[in-house]
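Students often ask why we bother encoding 3D structure as a string. The short answer is that it lets us treat folding as translation between two languages. Here is a chain of 244 residues written in the first language.
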Amino acid sequence: MELPKILISRAEYIATENWDDYAAGVSAAGGDPVEFTLSDFQRGNIIPDAAGIVLTAGVDINPVRYNSTPHEKVSEWNDDRDIFEIALIEQAILDKKPLLCICRGAQLLNVWAGGGLLQHLENREPHRARRNPTTEIVESGWHDVTVTPDSLLATITGTSVLHVNSRHHQAITKDNLAPDVKIAAIAEDGVVEAIELSVPSWVLGIQWHPEQQEMLSVPNLESGSKAIWSGFIQAATSGGMKHF
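And here it is in the second language, the structure alphabet:
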């Protein structure tokens, strides 16, 4: 049986992110990961046929896209990447193919749908990454999120609370949520951690990083990592629709 081909977006190099981690998450769940780069897209604006699409983490989204003036902590963005991944969102929804948007991807999904972003979380804990002074390794923040009952995420994970990793300085909040976007999970401090669209196809945006080994390799964290990859690949295999 042929494995479902999954396009995974790739743009700028980020020292703390590894594209291969996303590919490993897809592979472990039974999918065939295919790199689709910004350069590939720009060569012809053609998106290859695939059973599903994954949007990855990366630089900030240009605040102009949600009618905001850049915060002093927002100085780097990539307009070409915004255009590239918005095209992927629209193609996935048009074709009713499953779409998994991670970190920046979830934020872009909300912006594309007409929402905005909190441009900078002033408090480092628990969401922003930090550098370990002993090892100099960039580490995640950790916290619980409450899963919305009867959501796609609740169906996938089978639980009401997830313990997840965080590496973001921007956030979706209730105040900037897009009109047709539903909250699928929220942190205790009000940061929206997962979103879904009011569409029949499988579309999920999550703020944490299910591709990181710190999630994938720990058995009691599988609901927020392996279960999501498995649910996504299952949807890609069965035609991309929600089943609940």
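Translate back mentally: DSSP finds seven helices and twelve strands in the chain. Keep this in mind for the problem set.
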